[in-house]
Amino acid sequence: MTALLDRLRQRGWRLTAQRRAVAGVLAGEHVHLTADQVLQRARAVLPEVSQATVYATLAELVAMGELREVALDGGARRFDPNVGDEHQHLVCRSCGAIRDVHPAGVGGLRLGRGDRAGYRLDGIDVTFRGLCPGCAAR
């Protein structure tokens, strides 16, 4: 059973077959799927799941705080089920693979008042970029 499904059960969320298919494809480490990838994988498990159901389920899970939306470089939004663990992302510039990372020192990163432009800060997102081993070997 996935951590996400376990959390949803504990919250008493109604787990229909469609919702279970969506949550199930978000299982594992370093999962950062687009909505279309979630749809494709959910249909492999449950062919009758609709696009509307997948999109509505993803939106509901984000609103519940069970998924984090990740938008990198103007590409399609991705959905990260690793919400209980403060982390940053490592992205391959070539294939777009994304991994969760825990860099040292991010917790101490501060933006001075003069650089905030009046913003009230509520988070830090750091993205590391490079080439994954497969792309670097090409």
Give a structural overview.
Helices cover 33% and strands 15% of the residues. The chain is built from five helices and six strands, in the order H-H-E-H-H-E-E-E-E-E-H. The radius of gyration is 17 Å and the shape is globular. The chain starts with a helix and ends with a helix.
Give keywords.
138 residues; alpha+beta; 3-stranded antiparallel sheet; 3-stranded mixed sheet; 5 helices; 33% helix; globular
Mean pLDDT across the residues is: 92
Helix/strand order, N-terminal first = HHEHHEEEEEH
The parts where pLDDT drops under 50 for at least 5 residues are none
Can you give the helix content as a percent range? Answer: 25-40%
Strand proportion, as a percent range, falls in: 15-25%
Shape: globular
The total count of helices amounts to 5
End-to-end separation in angstroms reads 36 Å
Number of strands: 6
Radius of gyration: 17 Å
Question: Helices and strands: which structural class?
Answer: alpha+beta
Assembly annotation: single chain
Largest sheet: 3 strands, antiparallel
Q: Looking across the biggest beta sheet, what order are the strands in?
A: 1-3-2
Write the topology of this structure.
Layout: H1 3-10, H2 17-25, E1 33-34, H3 35-45, H4 51-63, E2 68-70, E3 78-80, E4 88-92, E5 98-101, E6 127-130, H5 133-136
Parallel strand pairs: 4-6
Antiparallel strand pairs: 1-3, 2-3, 4-5
